[in-house]
Design a protein that fits this description.
Strand order of the largest sheet: 2-1-3-4-5
Largest sheet: 5 strands, parallel
Shape: globular
Number of strands: 14
Strand content: 5-15%
Helix content: 40-55%
Structural class: alpha/beta
Number of helices: 20
Oligomer: single chain
Number of domains: 4
Length: 475
C-alpha cells in the first residue's frame, strides 16, 4: 500500500491507542495524523484531506458519533470507523445508522485495521477508475450519442450510469419514444470494461417476427428459403461486448422463451443447427411499454422481465424535465449549425420561452428535428420565435385539448363528485374510442387491430367484451 497514499486521522484520548494505530497504518504506507480530542479532530477533518478516520466514541469535546454526523452535514468525503470500549447493541446500531464504515470494539486486532485501510484505498481507486471511465465516454461515444441534461433527474441518471457501467449486469431502460434510451445504453457500454468491443443494437420491433430469431441467433445455410449463406447472428457479433435490445416489449412470446434460455445458459443455437455456441454478451434492453402490465396481461414473460431488469433505469419525458430544454437546444445548435446554417447560431431569449411552452410530445427527438428545421429555414445569426413558428400554432391549438389535459379535466370532475371509480371510469373512456378506431381501421379484423394497438389478441377480445364494443358491420 504505497501508491497512492491514504491520509488517515486517528482521534482518541488514549495515547497507547493512537501510538499502535499510527505504527500499524504507517507500516501500510498511510499518512497518519493523530489528535486527542473531538475539537481537534473536527478541525483536522474540516480540511478535507483525510479519506479515513478512526474516532473514539467517547473523548473530550464532540464524541465520535457527533463528529460522524457533523462530517456528513459538511459533505466531507471521509470514511469513518467508530472505536469503543463498550460493546453495546445501541452503540453499534447508532454508528452504522449514521453511516460509519465500521465499528471496532477495544481491544481490536491490527489485522482489522489493516483490512479497513485496504478497503478504503481500494474504494478510492475504484472511484478514480469510474471518473476516468466517465471522461473516456466523451472520447468513445460518437457525435450525437452524448447524453445531455442538467435537470435533477438527469444528474441522478448520470450517477446511476457511472455506478452500473463497470458492473456486468443487465439493465432495462424505460421511457417514451424519443427520450434517448439508446443513448443511455451506449453511455453504459462506453463507460464499461467492454467499451473496446462491439456495441450491437437491434430494434426488435422493426424486424419481422419470422426473421428476428435468425437476426438474433444466426442461421445455417439452407435453414429456410432465402438462407443462401450462413449468418452468425447479433449475439455472436456482440460476443465480448454489449447487445442492446430495443423495444423488447414487442418481442413475440416464443422468442421471449428462446431469449430467456440464452440469458440463462449463455449459449445460442443458430436456426437450422443442433450445435450450441457459447457467447459472452452483456444485455441492455429498452422499451416504451409498461412491462409489468404486459406481464399481467400475459403478453410478456415474468421470468424474462426479472432477468432483464436487474437494474431498472427510467428516462422521463422532456415535458417533465424542462430544465433540459435550453441545454438540449444549445447542444443541437452547436452540433448542426455549421452544416445546416453555414456558421454559428444562437437562441433569442424569447425563443427559449417558446421552446419551454411547447409540450414536446416527440420528446428529445422532436426538439432535435425542430432545431434542424429552424437552422435550415432561419436567416439570421440569432434564431427568433418566428424561426420556430411551426411549433407555435399546433401548440396553441392543442393547448386546451391535449390528452393529458383532457384526462386531468375528467379526473378533476370525478374528484369533485367524490367518485370511488375514477380509475375505471377514465380508463374505459380512453380505451373505448381507441379500440373502436383500431377496429374501424381494420374493418373489424381483431388480429390486425390488436397488432395496431400493440396488444395481445386475447387482451383485445376481453376488452371488447368488457366494454361492450360493437364490431363494425355487426350492430
Amino acid at each position: 500500500m504505497t501508491e497512492p497514499e491514504l491520509n488517515v486521522l486517528v482521534a482518541d484520548d488514549e495515547p497507547s491507542i493512537r501510538f499502535v494505530l499510527r505504527e500499524t497504518l504507517e507500516e501500510q504506507g498511510c499518512v497518519v495524523t493523530d489528535v486527542d480530542d473531538g475539537d481537534a479532530a473536527l478541525d483536522a477533518l474540516a480540511t478535507g484531506e483525510h479519506s479515513l478516520a478512526f474516532l473514539d466514541i467517547r473523548m473530550p469535546g464532540p464524541s465520535g458519533l457527533e463528529l460522524l454526523e457533523r462530517i456528513q452535514g459538511l459533505g466531507l468525503d471521509c470514511s469513518i470507523v467508530i472505536m469503543t470500549a463498550q460493546n453495546t447493541y445501541e452503540n453499534a446500531v447508532e454508528a452504522m445508522k449514521r453511516g460509519a464504515l465500521d465499528y471496532l470494539v477495544k481491544p481490536f486486532g491490527m489485522d482489522e485495521v489493516k483490512a479497513l485501510a485496504a478497503k478504503v484505498l481500494r474504494t478510492r481507486e475504484l472511484e478514480r477508475e469510474v471518473r476516468q471511465l466517465r471522461r473516456e465516454v466523451g472520447k468513445q461515444v460518437r457525435p450525437g450519442e452524448r447524453l445531455v441534461g442538467k435537470s435533477a433527474v438527469m444528474l441522478e441518471l448520470f450517477k446511476t450510469i457511472g455506478r452500473v457501467a463497470p458492473r456486468d449486469v443487465p439493465v432495462l431502460v424505460t421511457g417514451e419514444s424519443g427520450t434517448g434510451k439508446e443513448l443511455v445504453a451506449r453511455a453504459i457500454h462506453a463507460a464499461s470494461p467492454r467499451s473496446e468491443r462491439a456495441f450491437v443494437a437491434v430494434n426488435t420491433a422493426a424486424i419481422p417476427r419470422d426473421l428476428l430469431e435468425s437476426e438474433l441467433f444466426g442461421h445455417e445455410r439452407g435453414a429456410f428459403t432465402g438462407a443462401v449463406a450462413a449468418r452468425s447472428g447479433r449475439f455472436r457479433e456482440a460476443s465480448g461486448g454489449t447487445l442492446f435490445l430495443d423495444e423488447i416489449g414487442d418481442m413475440s412470446s416464443d422468442l421471449q422463451a428462446k431469449l430467456l434460455r440464452v440469458l440463462q445458459d449463455q449459449v445460442v443455437t443458430p436456426v437450422g443447427s443442433n450445435a450450441s455456441q457459447k457467447v459472452d454478451v452483456r444485455i441492455l434492453a429498452a422499451t416504451h411499454r409498461d412491462l409489468d402490465e404486459a406481464v399481467s396481461s400475459g403478453d410478456f414473460r415474468e421470468d424474462l422481465l426479472y432477468r432483464l431488469r436487474v437494474v431498472p433505469m427510467h428516462l422521463p419525458p422532456l415535458r417533465d424535465r424542462r430544465d433540459d430544454v435550453r441545454v438540449l437546444a444549445d447542444h443541437f445548435i452547436a452540433r448542426y449549425a455549421e452544416d445546416l446554417a453555414g456558421g454559428p447560431r444562437s437562441l433569442a431569449d424569447e425563443t427559449i420561452s417558446v421552446l419551454l411552452r411547447h409540450s414536446w410530445p416527440g420528446n428529445v427527438r422532436e426538439l432535435e428535428n425542430a432545431v434542424k428545421r429552424a437552422l435550415v429555414l432561419g436567416s439570421g445569426a440569432v434564431l427568433t420565435p418566428e424561426d420556430f413558428a411551426f411549433i407555435q400554432e399546433p401548440e396553441a391549438e392543442r393547448s386546451a385539448t391535449t390528452l393529458d389535459e383532457l384526462v386531468r379535466r375528467e379526473a378533476d370532475t370525478e374528484l369533485d363528485r367524490e367518485s370511488d371509480e375514477i380509475y375505471r371510469s377514465i380508463i374505459e373512456r380512453v380505451e373505448r374510442p381507441m379500440i373502436e378506431a383500431a377496429l374501424a381501421r381494420t374493418e373489424g379484423n381483431q388480429i390486425k387491430a390488436a397488432a395496431l394497438l400493440g396488444i395481445n389478441r386475447n387482451t383485445l377480445r376481453k376488452k371488447i367484451v368488457d366494454l361492450d364494443i360493437a364490431l363494425p358491420g355487426r350492430e
